[in-house]
Amino acid sequence: MDQVLAYYESHRADFLNRMKDLLRMPSISAQSAHKDDLRKCAGLVRQYLTTAGLQAEIMETGGHPAVLADSGPVEGDRPVVLVYGHYDVQPEGDLNLWHSPPFEPTERDGAVFARGAADDKGQMLTHVFAAECWGKGAGRLPLRLKFLIEGEEEVASAHLEGFTKDHRDQLACDYVLISDTAQFGPGRPALTYGVKGIVYKEILLHGPTQNLHSGSFGGTVANPGNILAHIIASLYQADGRVAIPGFYDDVVELGADEKATLMALPFDEAGYLKELGCPKLFGEPGYSTLERRWVRPTLDVNGLVGGYTGEGASTVIPSDAVGKVSMRLVPAQDPQKISQAFDGAVRAACPDSVQLKILTHGVVAAYLAPLDSAGMKAAARAISRGFGAEPTYIREGGSLPILPLFKEVLGADSIMMGFALPNCNLHGPNEFLHIRDFESGIRTSAYFYGELGTDGR
Amino acid sequence: MDQVLAYYESHRADFLNRMKDLLRMPSISAQSAHKDDLRKCAGLVRQYLTTAGLQAEIMETGGHPAVLADSGPVEGDRPVVLVYGHYDVQPEGDLNLWHSPPFEPTERDGAVFARGAADDKGQMLTHVFAAECWGKGAGRLPLRLKFLIEGEEEVASAHLEGFTKDHRDQLACDYVLISDTAQFGPGRPALTYGVKGIVYKEILLHGPTQNLHSGSFGGTVANPGNILAHIIASLYQADGRVAIPGFYDDVVELGADEKATLMALPFDEAGYLKELGCPKLFGEPGYSTLERRWVRPTLDVNGLVGGYTGEGASTVIPSDAVGKVSMRLVPAQDPQKISQAFDGAVRAACPDSVQLKILTHGVVAAYLAPLDSAGMKAAARAISRGFGAEPTYIREGGSLPILPLFKEVLGADSIMMGFALPNCNLHGPNEFLHIRDFESGIRTSAYFYGELGTDGR
User: Fold this and answer.
1) Domains and CATH numbers, chain A
2) Could you report the predicted ipTM of this complex, rounded to two decimals?
């Protein structure tokens, strides 16, 4: 381990620079114009894995490619760890809100600001560089390592299910290791043991062939904008409850122990509100803010558009209106059932005066990991060494489609180490990762490989 | 009148050529690059009015200039008619959709195709040339004529209110004569006696400081997109009725006579539906399509935007959501009162979990002309002589802010003669005016001057 840490120490600047090189690539998976950028980005990930001493390949998936790597077998009966991450990123959004360009990584206040710094390029690379510290520093790996770094996580991992099933032997492992979550707070690195599922829908309404003059034609044709508002309003009550019939049927209330642990967490509600900047917090009646985030299902409008959206006034009846709406699900909710219930509710609320089309962009189950596995215990020890702080056990409102998939196809549970901060602006402007967390992450990952390798299988 | 018609007959080709000369000028008021073209165009209008025998001047307005002309007093106690029109035009739009260049007037199928042929250069000139037929043919005018031809109609007549108030004495008149509307159908010239008012609003909701990850934060903060849907849904019932408290309070039901006239109009509902291309017609229960267009108030979403509006899925809670909503009002509805009722309803529907701002882009009253005035009666006789067809009395769903303005400032009612066709592609590609309608328009205008002049004041 000394050699491993020595290699780490002598390569800190290099690791940081290589992270920045990866962050310069605008690998926005949602936008087809960036197709080539994604492939180039996969190429650089492959290069880093090769440098770490693994056999790495770019694999076709039917969509953006994935990078698959394998160290090959190691001596002794060691567990196999599959590191999962993603090199694709969210769209940059409104450029005017960024203090530095999203794809020109910039250091400020000890952090690197760039789209993907936290989600997930920066966090993912901690495990790649930790492998390099072992491979180059100690000359060997303490366990067999595999990497699967995909390029479609931000578009609901569209091709990953098929890919995983097609490559189940190559991906076979005892644990999946993922850093695509966050610490509980600064200096409180977390082990996330549960994530929500998601069902993401797009409602498309089409009325007249083209935008119409709202004076000449108003009142005689159904307005897709008016109807969209009615449909969305019918799905969600003003008090914060979801109004889709059957939505809560399979939701399990939290057990007394878990609830007590959750309520005991030092959650700074005032700080949270201040950080978000909204007038007040709001959510489902009868639950705390942490419960709403982690263990209660939700429904959110993610996007709305129709008609004239420029400055000032234009008197059109829009020919089309589009609403993107997603639901976050908790364990025991069947995402297929929720998907159908959503479609049924939308169809019931939509009159025949417009044409309705519903697109489904994602149907993913929630996931809950066991807390008492050897992997989870090794992870806890690694974090306490890497960060000098005990891990906080948390759940997460986000979704990781790969988790239920890996459990189902590979039979492996996932270990989610969160190195980023909760306020690191994932999906928003000015995303960042603290350099000290990036570096503690590399050390933690190196400790984890060593701890779990020492345990044996 | 014989001399007038003789002059008309001998100058038909000349009038057509002079209309084409005016149409060659790209007087696009929305585009500052055409500023000089507008001034040149005003100069040619002035020249035509001078040729007709009027004293004409180019007047500064603060924006594009207006042309103001006056024949001076005539013998006897004759009414004064102010012809209002505009020489500015809409942008040409997509040039690929035009079958001949928009500013090279081209004859096809008995019509002149060019931007502004119908809206409003061609129609406006009928009244200029009719004045010339009187002045040059008969050597005198049968009544005092004034012209106000503005250059900003297509940009919401930005300076007209101030100009009208500043020149109320010069503009003083008994009737305003306007041809900027359409026939009811081919061979069915129309007198438009009512237009709707409009109140145009923009609802701005602001929640969190920036877009948030809908997984990490969903369920804990109010979503401006969800709330916008609820607010809009609260303003408008699914059955097509407006739900703003008090909205219908001042709406007057159509009288039996007017309703009978309206119901007797040969309105081609199937053709109308086919033209619009929506699955079916839809509107306020209990009213026909023409009633909904012309005599019932409406509420339409004109634009919606918030969150992620690009391709595919992005899981954000939008920090902002914006809805543009306008209402078309009927006579007796007070636009200020409706404006306040709208704001009140929106505020009542908006929770304190987001910040609300309401912008007002327009507050314009409806206008209804009396059908039994001497001017309206003279207009009907003139149309039946000029076109050889009785006028159809129609209303219009659009709004013309100048009409209530002229009524308020000058105390004059407006007479709207429609010579263009409803499908003459106003604001679209391949705008046209039939030459026979242009010529019938000149004759009709000449008859009108004569009829109203003969009536006396």
Assistant:
1) 2-195+366-455 (3.40.630.10), 197-251+297-364 (3.30.70.360)
2) 0.89
